[in-house]
# Entry
Amino acid sequence: MLAIGTQAPAFTLPDQNGELRSLSDFRGQKVILYFYPKDMTSGCTKQACAFGELYPQFREKGAVVLGVSKDSVASHKRFEEKHGLPFTLLSDTEKTVIQAYDVWKEKKLYGKVSMGVVRTTYLIDENGVIIKGFDKVKAAENPAQMLGELG
# Structure
């Protein structure tokens, strides 16, 4: 987990349309940057759809939502189209941003240990500073929680 009050690591990644997006593109807006394990899985779909439903309210509060996973651009496009997601999904197949934001961790499932993305959400202010961070978030509850964090 990155420390609150620190500058968010800069990045440039392709979105679901293959266009390169940088964190700096969103200066002047609050950014909800959420990391999730995999497109089309149950928890990730619940989380993405809830962010989608609340997206107009995030925009009213001057915030954008960026979802990041190690899935491909093509996978993100299918995910976006299947669920009508109105926000940006970023593809980090090399895990550079995932590692920079300290969300690639050891996970245990049914006694089996593996490495993977721990569901984590950061709130970044208009100047690129991390003002909130939540790890091991509950997928279905996280979007409403983040809307509440915007005040």
The chain is about 30% helix and 30% strand. The longest helix spans residues 42-60.
